[in-house]
Amino acid sequence: MNSSKVIDLRKIYKRFYVGTPNELEILHGIDLTVNRGEFVSIVGASGSGKSTLMNIIGALDRPTLGEYNLNGIDICSAKDGELSHIRNKQIGFVFQTYNLIPRNTALKNVELPMMYAGISSHKRRKRAEELLEMVGMGDRIKHTPDELSGGQKQRVAIARALANEPSIILADEPTGALDSSTGRMIMDLFHKLHRERGITIILITHSNELAEETGRILTLMDGRIISERRGGAYAEGQHTPCAQ
Amino acid sequence: MLKDNILLALSELKANKMRSLLTMLGIVIGIAAVISIMILGDGMKRYTVDVMSSPESRRVYFFIIQNAQEDIYDDAKYDESVREMRRSDYFSSKTFDKLQESFSDRLEGISLDRDLGQMKVGSESINVCGVNPTALSLKGEIKVIAGRGISSDEYNKGKAVVIIPEKKAKSLYGSVENALGRSLECKKNNELNCYTVVGVYHKEKESMMQDMLFGSSGEPAFVPYANAATVAVTDDCFYSFSAVAKQDTDLNGLAEDLKKSINNSFYKDNDAYKADVLVLEDALKSVGQIISLMKLVLMAIAAISLIVGGIGVMNIMVVSITERTREIGTRKALGATNGNIRTQFLIEAIIICMIGSAVGVGLGLLLGKFMSSLMGIQGVATLGTIAISVSFSMIFGVFFGFYPASKAAKMNPIDALRYE
């Protein structure tokens, strides 16, 4: 096994309503490999199968057919409990709508994945503080989500995604709910994490502009990857606020 | 992890204060009802045991029934066409004299009392009641606090002496001591009766239980029966009377013997009526049984309210889980297992039930104490009963929390994340 491969998808099919007259095939044999330290974006219009692919990559769902190896773990044969564990340890989710737990402080939110990993409260508090410091939220650790702005919420969510040092960060339209300047800041944060910490990031977006900044751009259409090209047009400070 | 779940549940409850309170209220009421009913039931039981050892329990009732009837409860054989009772069909003092004479070894006495009714003393009014010593012993806990009681000589000779209640002594003469030796002039239907006050008594307030079981006897002025009999407005006719047995007498045996004696001497040739007897001990036992039954029924009702409370918890949990679908999806995405989610919501339900039951126990204890003091009984809730009802509410928490918690645990993370 190539140790630099973090994600290895082979001939992934996803069908819904299997065995009924409404049977629907969303993904038609996706092949995708992501290496450690890559910043990949998956672009596609609504209905192209982006979300379905993301669910499979994120181990939230299993493919109907095909093989999926995540950091050497066979996802297709894993049981529900094992999938929970894989999500906990291997994947850091960043959602469009932040999905912070309401009424819990930023600190508690960042501690959450570590709590499910069974890390002692002292250790996880320390690490959560570090992570929040890293994303520039060190002075807001006691604030609850409703006391934070959208950008601040997303930064807490990114800190949370990093909590268990996952193999990949899976960001689903992370700037989709933000104004352009805040979105820019979030993208800068991703680039910084990628560059300085070598974190593997998969960005799912419908914005070509954002995708251009990443190292590799995959375009999804009607359940197939129709193009794959190099990107990397990112240089800090040179970008105008991203349009959404 | 457990600590985290508990803290989490508490913060959720705090965030929805009103809802949590209302949900708990159901449990609070249920537990409070169970505990207070336990206390009342215990108090009633204790009371009946107390009564069992009082003169009341050694009492046998006599009354007149038709010849064809088995006993007083035998309504089926009651015949409307039987002739009405005549003077000679009633019990009379002759009956009592004979019984007291022939059963002196086993009989403490026959309770003779005659209520002379309300009389006027100046502008005040007072009830006057003629009693013999046995009758007085059945009038509740009477304690002479000043002067003396009526002597046996006064009883026998029917002297015009009276013992009056504390309250009347104060309202008529200003103070308890002032009343002693004074003459009590009572007027009824323009007839004047004068009694010398020899004593003032104090009576423990009658409990509601006593009222229920024996009826209230109030606080009349007591005069010797023999005296009251001379001014009696009614004749020497008694439809019923009660006799009190000496201690450690077989009540049923005595009752049967007394009945035989009365029926053989006074009702031998009576064509329509005879005497029958009721042993109070038996009646008390059946009262005890009725109380146990009542307790059971009330407990069942309380248990139902507890179940309703539990369903309230379940309802709120279902609502809360639906509201928090997204949160559940997020937690699952972050690595929570089905078990983690189930535990989280189960603990929330258990905490609602536990806080509710803690408040319920407190409220139930207060309510139980208050109600039993109102009824004049002394009930206690044992630690065991409290422990049982609290552990029941825990079980309730698990039972009613389990369905919603499982529902949450089984949510598909993808759908849950998308939930709007």
What does this structure look like?
- Chain A has a single domain (37-60, 80-230), classed as Rossmann fold.
- In chain A, 32% of the residues lie in helices and 27% in strands.
- Chain A is built from 7 helices and 10 strands.
- In chain A, the strands form 2 sheets. Chain A has a 6-stranded mixed β-sheet, sandwiched between helices. In chain A, strands 2-1-4-5 form a 4-stranded antiparallel β-sheet, covered by helices on one side.
- Chain B is an alpha+beta fold and 420 residues long.
- Chain B folds into 2 domains: 2-51 and 286-418, no CATH class; 55-280, no CATH class.
- Chain B has helices spanning 2-15, 17-52, 93-102, 133-137, 152-157, 166-173, 176-179, 208-214, 225-230, 251-265, 280-323, 325-333, 338-375, 383-409, 413-418; strands spanning 59-66, 107-111, 113-121, 124-131, 142-147, 161-165, 183-188, 191-203, 221-224, 240-245, 273-279.
- In chain B, strand 7 and strand 8 form a beta hairpin.
- In chain B, helix 1 (2-15) packs across helix 13, helix 2 crosses helix 13 and helix 2 (17-52) runs antiparallel to helix 14.
- Chain B is elongated.
- Classes of the chains: A alpha/beta (244), B alpha+beta (420).
- At the A-B interface, helix 2 and helix 3 of A face helix 1, helix 12, helix 13 and helix 15 of B.
